[in-house]
Amino acid sequence: MPTVAAPSARIQQQAADRLAALATPPGALGRLGDLAVWVASCQGQVPPRPLDKVRLVIFAGDHGVAEHGVSAFPASITGAMVRTFLAGKAGVNALAQAHGVAVRVLDIGVAEGFSDLDDESHAALTAYKIRAGSGAIHLEDALTAEETEAALAAGASVAREEIAVGAQLLISGDMGIGNTTPAAAMVAAALGLPAAEVVGRGTGVTEDVLQRKAAIVDAALARAGARTDDPVQTLAALGSADLAATTGYLLTAARHGVPVLLDGLMSVACALTADRIEPGAAAWYAAGHRSTEPAQSLALDKLGMQPLLDLGLRLGEGSGAVAAVPVVRSAVALLRDVALLAELGN
Ligand SMILES: Cc1cc2ncn([C@H]3O[C@H](COP(=O)(O)O)[C@@H](O)[C@H]3O)c2cc1C
Ligand SMILES: O=C(O)c1cccnc1
Question: Is the CB of 203 under 6 A from ligand 1?
Answer without folding.
Answer: yes
